[in-house]
Amino acid sequence: MTPPGNLAPIAAARAVLARAHRVAVLTGAGMSAESGVPTFRDAQTGLWARFDPHTLASAEGFAADPALVWRWYAWRRERVAQAQPHAGHRALAAAQESGRFGDLTLITQNVDGLHAAAGSRGVLELHGNLMSSHCSAGCGVAIARPADLPAGEPPGCPRCGGHLRPSVVWFGEALEPATLQRAQAAAVRSDAMLVIGTSGLVQPAAALPGAAQRAGSALIVVNPQPSELDHLAAVVIRAGAAAALPLLLEDSDS
Ligand code: APR
Fold first, then answer.
1. Which of 31, 98, 174, 215, CA to CA, is 20 to 30 A from 47?
2. With a threshold of 0.90, does the pTM exceed it?
3. What is the spatial distance between Cα 115 and Cα 31, in angstroms, rounded to a whole number?
């Protein structure tokens, strides 16, 4: 369980948000850690400490062994299906619903769907969604929920017979252009940006906070560990998302 950490900077971060009229939020795997979904780079527990990303999260890896990659994503889907949004996810959804921060745009690198499950709307899923699949041969078939798909072998595309693949962005693949453009626009027009649970190592998502900051947005980082983005922040909250976000976002007038 993530320790509560140092919540002292919450007051300074709340003062930044009090002045904000357009808030952007970028989340990474750390946002879901307290829901039991493993991150990628945390020592020992991170997925990349236990699995080879280029074997399991690349088109080359899928081409080499479609069944292995499909089974790994089926395992991840099972983990995610057991996960529930935590108080931090709910605090972000409530903040968006309240309208207190003007329009709040939620951008996530996560593929677990937990923000939408908590009630956040219009979530920009930069790296896709674990629950969706599409034809790897590019015939255009897309399946929103593979709940009834077999776990052991990648199913054949109902139209062309090619393998179905998870609709997530793999290493070396381009992000969906319209989604990335909307995320970039939200970042640069924001006057405050929350950067939660990301190591800031993977582009182009990791460039969004810098673009926001250069356009005048005040960054608030929430992360129990140092990250590549801390130097851009007006405030760094060295704590976990589940503890920090409810305190950061609660409506003190309520
Ligand atoms: N609350 C907030 N942050 C946390 C928590 C927590 N409870 N627990 C861990 N973290 C932080 C870690 O300190 C780390 O900085 O979350 C971050 C997770 O970093 P990564 O595992 O690198 O995940 P992420 O930044 O989302 O990776 C980006 O890399 O492999 C690709 O596609 C994958 O979307 C992923 C991308």
1. 174
2. yes
3. 9
